[in-house]
Design a protein that fits this description.
Radius of gyration: 24 Å
Number of helices: 17
Number of strands: 22
Oligomer: single chain
Structural class: alpha/beta
Low-confidence stretches: none
Helix content: 40-55%
Largest sheet: 7 strands, mixed
Mean pLDDT: 97
Bound molecules: adenosine-5'-diphosphate
Length: 495
């Protein structure tokens, strides 16, 4: 057996056991590049979710009472094993998700970086001692794990989105039930197998798999079960709103990483080579299927011709195909519906007057592919401006005045990331302060890192992941307000 086959699981993971769904149902996982079946996993439902929550609840007292250093050591071992198995994990990821092997490998290393980071942060969940407001008292604040947490993750980063939630939860002393996306359960299960090897105790990290059909009933259980203290979700704004609503009933803590509609702004004084390289990287990574992918391009009219020329030339280097093949740097989209959405956006733009520079069609053959596409003349009323396209398509719009620019850029209910290219310190300072986004990339397209907070303004989400803030999302703050009992007070009490 290859190491990838050794890591590929066909059961879900509850209470340290590899288990089937109560219903016995199974779900097929398909390679989006070849449409071949990669494997099958249990198609679980509400009963299985309940079983996993019970296991997490039973494991919580012991796990949360370990010292931070003990949890650090186990998590560090998990990170080490993820890195050690990176080639096999990457191959599995490419098979179920489609991204090119090199990118898959980078994602696996990114996944490991969250585990390592939060292993270290486990020891830094400091409280504080506050000068008391009254004499004879001590004011102390301490952080405590919230309890059992539910994680629901998407298919676009099947490895990193799992550890970005599980690592801070476990580091804080919480236990977790994780439901990965229906398209990509294998990466999550492989991570669970390595967690088991690393010595993470039974019930601390559980992975339940399901089809899209059963996701809603699992979601309903995770958001209503009184033993779940917190729900952390990454996915669409539409599903996020449903989950927030469901969590309201029992006032569960929520963290939401939802959709984006990120602007990419190129000012007239930008270094165009830098802007073009950043556009290529940020837009075509994962075939445009990241929530921080630039979705609206605002290029100053003085440089738009050169930007478009340069980008279309750079795009010639994109080789689409099966991500497992050598030299391929643009994989397929995740599903037929994803291709249809991209097609709808491109056709809508062309019908409303945009011009096609390159691409604009599906290639022949199997797989959910769409050719890398560049359009100009993109305007605010087009679908691709209003919604995330989530595909390998750049639609360039032009602006001339900075005052009009900001209004257009912020004219969206989303606020995840924004990219700004300029060589003027004053312009950078002025504009970056006014961009309504949780993450602003200035002269770079590389903005995701485990050491900095990731999250959105407005309907792009609630809370932050990664960084020192990421672990706080899994902790309660307790204020211990203590009055000293001196002899006088004692007399009072006993009187
Ligand atoms: P995408 O459009 O990227 O697939 P979704 O928000 O639809 O994003 O899915 C993200 C995750 O949410 C997946 O794991 C999916 O199975 C899950 N999901 C979808 N609908 C629900 C629901 N009603 N309750 C709980 N989870 C859901």
């Amino acid at each position: 057996m290859t190491s990838t086959e050794l890591l590929q699981q066909s059961c879900a993971y509850i209470d340290g056991q590899w288990v089937q769904a109560e219903s016995g149902e199974r779900l097929a996982v398909t390679n989006p590049a070849t449409l071949e079946e990669v494997g099958t996993v249990p198609d679980m439902g509400q009963q299985d979710a309940r079983r996993a929550i019970d296991a997490a609840q039973r494991a919580f007292p012991k796990w949360s009472s370990k010292t931070a250093k003990e949890r650090e050591q186990v998590l560090k071992e998990w990170a080490r094993l993820i890195r050690l198995n990176a080639p096999a994990l990457a191959a599995l990821l490419t098979q179920e998700q489609g991204k090119p092997l090199l990118e898959a490998r980078n994602e696996v290393m990114f996944a490991a970086s969250f585990v390592e980071w939060f292993a270290e942060e486990a020891k830094r969940t400091y409280g504080e001692v506050i000068p008391p407001a009254h004499a004879g008292m001590r004011f102390m604040v301490q952080k405590e794990p919230v309890g059992v947490c539910a994680g629901i993750t998407p298919w676009n980063l099947p490895s990193a989105m799992v550890t970005r939630k599980a690592a801070p939860a476990l580091a804080a002393g919480c236990t977790m039930v994780l439901k990965p996306a229906e398209h990509t359960p294998l990466s999550a299960l492989a991570l669970a197998a390595l967690a088991e090897q690393a010595g993470i105790p039974p019930g601390v990290f559980n992975v339940i798999t399901s089809s899209r059909k059963n996701a809603a009933e699992i979601g309903a259980e995770l958001t209503s079960n009184p033993n779940v203290a917190k729900v952390s979700f990454t996915g669409s704004t539409q599903v996020g709103k449903i989950l927030i609503g469901q969590c309201a009933e029992s006032v569960k803590r929520v963290s939401m990483e939802l959709g984006g509609n990120s602007p990419f702004i190129v000012l007239q004084d930008a270094d165009l080579k830098t802007a073009i390289q950043a556009a290529l990287f940020a837009k075509f990574r994962n075939a445009g299927q990241t929530c921080i992918a630039p979705n609206r391009f605002f290029v100053h009219e003085a440089v738009s011709h050169d930007f478009v020329q340069g980008l279309s030339k750079a795009m010639e280097g994109l080789k689409w195909g099966d991500g497992a093949r050598d030299g391929v740097n643009l994989g397929p989209l995740i599903s037929a519906q994803a291709v249809e959405k991209v097609e709808r956006h491109v056709n809508d733009a062309l019908n409303k007057g945009a011009a096609l520079v390159c691409g604009g069609e599906r290639p022949e053959g199997p797989g959910y592919f769409y050719k890398p596409t560049l359009l100009t003349g993109v305007t605010p009323e087009m679908l691709m401006t209003q919604e995330e396209t989530f595909g390998p398509v750049v639609g360039v719009g032009v602006f001339s005045r900075e005052e009009d620019l900001l209004k257009q850029v912020n004219n969206t209910r989303m606020g995840l990331a924004a990219y700004l290219f300029s060589s003027s310190a004053a312009r950078i300072q002025r504009l970056s302060g006014h961009l309504e986004a949780g993450i602003v990339g200035v002269n770079t397209g590389l903005i995701a890192t485990e050491v900095a907070p990731f999250g959105g303004y407005k309907e792009s989400g609630l809370g932050r992941e990664g960084a020192r803030q990421g672990i706080d999302e899994f902790m309660e703050t307790k204020f211990i307000c203590e009055a000293f009992v001196d002899e006088g007070n004692e007399a009072e009490v006993s009187a």
